[in-house]
C-alpha cells in the first residue's frame, strides 16, 4: 500500500502532516522512552527538505544565497537542543559542533560532514516530500506528471517492501545532501542518549555551496581539528568512495564583429557561428552520455550569445592526472587554433582547476576503519569511484583525509530523485559503529 503524506514546515521544526484518505498524523514529537532511530531520521529528513537552500553559481556572495544561512540557523538550534557542544555558525555559513569524548582512551578525532545546499539544476522551492511505504516494485507515479519506473531505474527493485521517499514531481527532493545531515544528527542524538557506548571526540560540520564547488573555500581544517572525516554525501546503499574526478572548468569567450548583414561580406565575424564550430571540435564519444567507470569526459554545459559575443562553458573531468593535463591542453590548443584562424583575441580561454582526485591523499588506515564500521553495521562496502566530486575531495587535498559514504539517495538534482528510508538508517548505524571505541 502506498501512503502519501505532505509535510509543510511551520515556524518551528514541528510538522503538520497531511495524509491521503482523510488520515491526519500528529505533529512531530521529541522521542520519548526508547529511541526510534528510523522515525528520528525520517522526521529530520522530512523537516529539512521543505527548506529551499538552492545555491547560486552566479552569486558572488558567501554563501551564495541567504536562504542557506536561514537553514544553517535552524541546524544550530537543533545541535544545541540535542546536547552537542561548541555549536557555531561561521560568518561564511558553516555550522560546526562537537560531541565530546566519553572515554579516556587515546582516540582519533572523527569529522562528519554534509552540505546544506541543493543543486541549481532543478527547483528546490516548495518541496513536498511523499512517502511510498512498503514499495511494491512497480511504477511510482507522482502528482506532477513524473513516473519513477524500475524499467528506467532498475535499482528500485532492490528496495521492494521498503519505504521510498520522493518529491511531488515538480522539484528535486533534496536528499543530496539533507539526507546526510539527518543521518549525522540522528547518529549524534543516539550516542548522546546512550552514553554507555564509549566514543572519542566527534566533530560535525554542515557546509554551504557544495553544489557549486565552493563548499570548503572557507573551511578551517585546523580549527575543525579532526584527524580524518567522512562526507555523508553518497548515493546507493553501501557506497564507500575514496576516488573522484580531477576537475576543471573551461570558459571560451568568443568575440565577433557585428555589421549590417546586407553588407557583411569579408567584414562580419559571427561569434555564435564560431562557438558552434568550436563545440564541434570536441570528441563526440567523450561526453557524459557516452562514458562510465573510470572514463573521463568533456561536458558542454551551455552555449550562449550572438554575433558580437558568445560563450561556451565546458567542464573537464578525468581520474588520471596525466589524462587530466592532456584534456586541459586540448582546450588550450583549441583556443590557440581558433585565434590563428580568426585572429588573435577572437577566443579568450579561462581555464581553472576545481578539485582533484582524493585517492592519493586518503591513507589505507582510514579506509580500513570505514570498512570495519560498514561490516559492524551489516553493510557490504561497495567500492567505486565518484564520477563527480565532494567537499571531501577538497579537504583531502588540503590535508584532512575525507572519503565519502552513502545516504541511500538516487537520481540527485532532478524530479526523479528518491531516497530509501531503511538505507538512511543503515548509514546512521555505520556512523555509530565508526564512533565506537
Structure explained in plain terms:
There is one protein chain. The chain is an alpha+beta fold. It folds into two domains: about 5-245 and about 355-435, Aminopeptidase (3-Layer(aba) Sandwich), CATH 3.40.630.10; about 245-355, Alpha-Beta Plaits (2-Layer Sandwich), CATH 3.30.70.360. Helices cover about 25% and strands about 25% of the residues. The protein has helices spanning about 35-50, 65-80, 175-195, 220-225, 270-280, 320-340, 365-375, 390-395, 420-435, and strands at about 5-10, 15-20, 25, 85-90, 95-100, 110-115, 130, 140, 145-150, 165, 200-205, 230, 240, 245-255, 295-305, 310-320, 345-355, 380-385, 405, 410, 420. The longest helix is centred in the C-terminal third of the chain and has 22 residues, at about 320-340. The chain starts with a strand and ends with a helix.
Amino acid at each position: 500500500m502506498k501512503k502519501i503524506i505532505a509535510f509543510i514546515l511551520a515556524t518551528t521544526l514541528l510538522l503538520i502532516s497531511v495524509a491521503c484518505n482523510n488520515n491526519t498524523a500528529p505533529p512531530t514529537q521529541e522521542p520519548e522512552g526508547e529511541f526510534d532511530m528510523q522515525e528520528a531520521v525520517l522526521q529530520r529528513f522530512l523537516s529539512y527538505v521543505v527548506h529551499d537552500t538552492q545555491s547560486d553559481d552566479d552569486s558572488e556572495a558567501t554563501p551564495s544565497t541567504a536562504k542557506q544561512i536561514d537553514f544553517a540557523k535552524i541546524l544550530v538550534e537543533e545541535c544545541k537542543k540535542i546536547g552537542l557542544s561548541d555549536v557555531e555558525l561561521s560568518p561564511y555559513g558553516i555550522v560546526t559542533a562537537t560531541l565530546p569524548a566519553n572515554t579516556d582512551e587515546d582516540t582519533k578525532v572523527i569529522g562528519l560532514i554534509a552540505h546544506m545546499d541543493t543543486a541549481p539544476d532543478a527547483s528546490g522551492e516548495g518541496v513536498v516530500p511523499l512517502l511510498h511505504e512498503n514499495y511494491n516494485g512497480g511504477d511510482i507515479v507522482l502528482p506532477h506528471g513524473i513516473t519513477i519506473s524500475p524499467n528506467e531505474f532498475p535499482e528500485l527493485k532492490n528496495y521492494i517492501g521498503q519505504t521510498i521517499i520522493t518529491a511531488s514531481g515538480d522539484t528535486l527532493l533534496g536528499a543530496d545532501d539533507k539526507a546526510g545531515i539527518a543521518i549525522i544528527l540522528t547518529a549524534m542524538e543516539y550516542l548522546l542518549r546512550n552514553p554507555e557506548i564509549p566514543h572519542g571526540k566527534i566533530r560535525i560540520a554542515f557546509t554551504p555551496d557544495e553544489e557549486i564547488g565552493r563548499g570548503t573555500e572557507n573551511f578551517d581544517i585546523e580549527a575543525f581539528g579532526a584527524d580524518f572525516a567522512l562526507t555523508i554525501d553518497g548515493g546507493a546503499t553501501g557506497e564507500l568512495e575514496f576516488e573522484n574526478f580531477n576537475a576543471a572548468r573551461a570558459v571560451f569567450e568568443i568575440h565577433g564583429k557585428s555589421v549590417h548583414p546586407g553588407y557583411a561580406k569579408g567584414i562580419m565575424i559571427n561569434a555564435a557561428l564560431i562557438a558552434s564550430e568550436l563545440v564541434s571540435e570536441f570528441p563526440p564519444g567523450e561526453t557524459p552520455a557516452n562514458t562510465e567507470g573510470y572514463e573521463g569526459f568533456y561536458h558542454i554545459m551551455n552555449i550562449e550569445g550572438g554575433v558580437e559575443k558568445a560563450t561556451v562553458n565546458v567542464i573537464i573531468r578525468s581520474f588520471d592526472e596525466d589524462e587530466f593535463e592532456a584534456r586541459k591542453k586540448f582546450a588550450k590548443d583549441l583556443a590557440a587554433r581558433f585565434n590563428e584562424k580568426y585572429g588573435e583575441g577572437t577566443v579568450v580561454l579561462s581555464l581553472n582547476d576545481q578539485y582533484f582526485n582524493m585517492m592519493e591523499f586518503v591513507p589505507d588506515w582510514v579506509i580500513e576503519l570505514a570498512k570495519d564500521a560498514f561490516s559492524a553495521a551489516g553493510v557490504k562496502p561497495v567500492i567505486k569511484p565518484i564520477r563527480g566530486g565532494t567537499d571531501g575531495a577538497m579537504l583531502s587535498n588540503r590535508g584532512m583525509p575525507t572519503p565519502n559514504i552513502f545516504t541511500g539517495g538516487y537520481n540527485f538534482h532532478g524530479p526523479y530523485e528518491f531516497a530509501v528510508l531503511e538505507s538512511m538508517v543503515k548509514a546512521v548505524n555505520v556512523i555509530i559503529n565508526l564512533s565506537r571505541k
